[in-house]
Write a structure and sequence with these properties.
Epimerase_deHydtase, about 325 residues, UDP_G4E, about 40% helix, Rossmann fold, UDP-glucose 4-epimerase, 2 domains, binds uridine-5'-diphosphate-4-deoxy-4-fluoro-alpha-D-galactose, seven-stranded parallel sheet, alpha/beta, two-stranded parallel sheet
């Protein structure tokens, strides 16, 4: 059986493709390479440069590659950008997923694991957040993902063979244990990569976006989970998929760290000072997010390998210091 991985050239997708191949699966990757990297896709996977909105080409690939199940990562994923430019988020994420689901129906593929997000919860009324917490996003990125959740719910009600598992990621971080795959975003807006780029001297200081939140040190709190643990959850979800299994799971560690905790831990890991400058809040940022992972632990047997922020940042540092220009570093050397 072949697994179709959308967005398999991206940060999380590429780590997952590798785990699937190591587990003996046949993998076919599609990616439009808008923000993904062809170099991140292992040679063992077949690759097609296709956009999610190209329903007919997607259908052809699903038929010719004999796809049995889909793991759907491809998405635009910057909260701040989604506030200033919402339409590409609805087009690529929401409409793109409708196109993918239509291609799946055309080619009789009926099982999908979908990357959803804690951004669908908005500002939660309880911490840790459970899957039953109300969903009320505060930015277009979160809405673009919540609309997809509704579409998946509708498909599972209407199409008898259709089955999905939606994984609501909290803050994905870190890089592969051997430093071979990593995080390479342009522009880079995420906290840990920006701390490490400051440690490398690529920027003079870290900008902390808001220090007047209702938290102990005034900065936002997030639940950081290692990218390889996110991928192991996908492998478990893939095995659990069936038309009766359709549901959502949080993936996080249930522990929260403030922006300043992350800066200090990054200083310890790298041995470099990371100067900070405070700027106003970024629109669309909830003050505190952390996950209850009880459901995925109990029902799918998920247990994270990386449980300390220090270890997670260490893997990211191993990548950033050996790949200061991301995947371009290897091409240049
Ligand atoms: N931050 C800074 N300075 C920076 C970058 C980030 O202070 O240079 C702050 C942000 O304001 C936020 C925290 O650090 O408070 C974490 O920001 P990230 O951009 O690293 O991640 P987000 O919390 O925005 O992550 C969100 C959702 C995820 C979603 C992800 C997509 O929580 O579910 O965006 O990129 F997948």
């Amino acid at each position: 059986m072949t697994i179709l991985v959308t967005g398999g050239a991206g940060y999380i997708g590429s780590h997952c493709v590798r785990q699937l191949i190591e587990a003996g699966q046949k993998v076919c990757v599609i990616d439009n390479l808008y923000r993904g990297h062809r170099e991140a896709v292992p040679a063992e996977a077949s690759f097609f440069q296709i956009d999610l909105l190209e329903t007919e080409r997607l259908t052809e690939v699903m038929k010719s590659q004999r796809i049995e199940k889909v793991i759907h990562f491809a998405a635009l994923a910057y909260v701040g950008e989604s506030v200033t430019e919402p339409l590409p988020y609805y087009m690529n994420n929401t409409a793109g997923t409708v196109s993918l689901l239509r291609a799946m129906r055309n080619s009789r593929v009926s099982q999908i694991v979908f990357s959803s997000s804690c951004a669908t919860y908005g500002i939660p009324d309880q911490i840790p957040v459970t899957e039953e917490s109300p969903q009320s996003p505060i930015n277009p990125y979160g809405w673009s993902k919540l609309f997809i959740e509704q579409i998946l719910n509708d498909c599972s009600h209407s199409y008898p063979n259709f089955g999905f598992i939606g994984l609501r990621y909290f803050n994905v971080a870190g890089c592969s244990h051997d430093g071979a795959l990593g995080e390479d975003h342009d522009p880079e807006t995420h906290l840990i990569p920006n701390c490490l780029r400051t440690a490398l001297g690529q920027q003079s200081h870290m900008t902390v976006l808001g220090n007047d939140y209702p938290t102990d040190d005034g900065t936002c709190i997030r639940d950081y989970v290692h990218v390889e643990d996110i991928c192991s959850a996908h492998l478990l979800a893939l095995n659990a998929l069936n038309p009766q299994s359709s549901r959502y799971y949080n993936i996080g560690l249930g522990q929260g760290f403030s922006v300043l905790d992350v800066v200090k831990t990054s200083e310890r890991v790298t041995g470099h000072e990371i100067p900070v400058e405070f700027k106003p809040r970024r629109p669309g940022d909830p003050p505190v997010l952390s996950a209850s992972n009880k459901r995925i632990s109990e029902e799918l047997g998920w247990s994270p390998k990386y449980t300390s922020l220090e270890e997670i940042i260490q893997t990211a540092w191993d990548w950033f210091r050996t790949h200061p220009e991301g995947y371009r570093t290897e091409t240049a050397s």
